[in-house]
Amino acid sequence: MQLIDHKIIRQTPLPPHTSSLFEYLFAGNGVFVRGVRPGLQVIMPVHLYNMPIRGLSELKPQLKLEPYPIPKDILISIWRQSCLARNDRGLIEILFHIQHRRDGWELRVPEQTQQTWQCQTTQPYHEAIAEFHSHGSGTASFSATDNAEEDGFRLYGIIGRLHTIHPEILIRAGLFGHFLIVPASCVFDLPDFLIDVAVRDQIAYQYYTINHNHHETQL
């Protein structure tokens, strides 16, 4: 099995996934990247063509989470613990891991270092399907630090504006430097008081690659 594979997509359904990291799919409407791990499958654009290539099938972004959705009480617990994460200067960041066990979804708070604008785990976390962290009173947006550190294959989320009655969340799928903003409802059963930035700001399905020239496009 290759680390990275390349496939020309002449027809669908897609052939089986055959790489240990990810594979590039050359479709009629662009180049896509696909990743598969237990509980999570993603297909996201890398580059879309202005003109279609005849003879190749077109693809769309996909996110498949199993089991879906992650329950509402996990997201509420993230919000509550984020509001309580403080030092003598005020709110500090806190990091969460979400993974699936035989009896359901599990929220963990790993050992970590915490500061006002930074948090970092001191434990390995290969089993985590999702990584979530707070931004205190700041907005739910991915920073340059987030982009540099979130280099695995999982879902990444941020909760921010915790000092308001309508905190914000933003979620993206990450695949080794490739990212796709997704609606939070694709992942969670959402409580009513949380504002999904992807939906509010109409940035759902924007895609970008951090380890190359930064590129964003709304589908």
What is the gist of this entry?
The protein is mostly beta strands and 219 residues long. It has helices spanning 72-84, 144-149, 197-200, and strands spanning 2-8, 19-27, 30-37, 40-48, 62-65, 86-87, 90-91, 95-101, 104-108, 112-115, 118-121, 130-134, 153-160, 168-175, 178-182, 195-196, 207-209.
What does it look like?
The protein has 219 residues and is mainly β. The strands form four sheets. Strands 8, 9, 12, 13, 14, 15, 16 and 17 form an eight-stranded mixed beta sheet that branches. Strands 1-2-3-4-5 form a five-stranded mixed beta sheet, with no helix packed on it. The chain has three helices and 17 strands. It folds into two domains: 2-65, no CATH class; 72-209, Cytidine Deaminase, domain 2 (3-Layer(aba) Sandwich). The protein has helices at 72-84, 144-149, 197-200, and strands at residues 2-8, 19-27, 30-37, 40-48, 62-65, 86-87, 90-91, 95-101, 104-108, 112-115, 118-121, 130-134, 153-160, 168-175, 178-182, 195-196, 207-209.
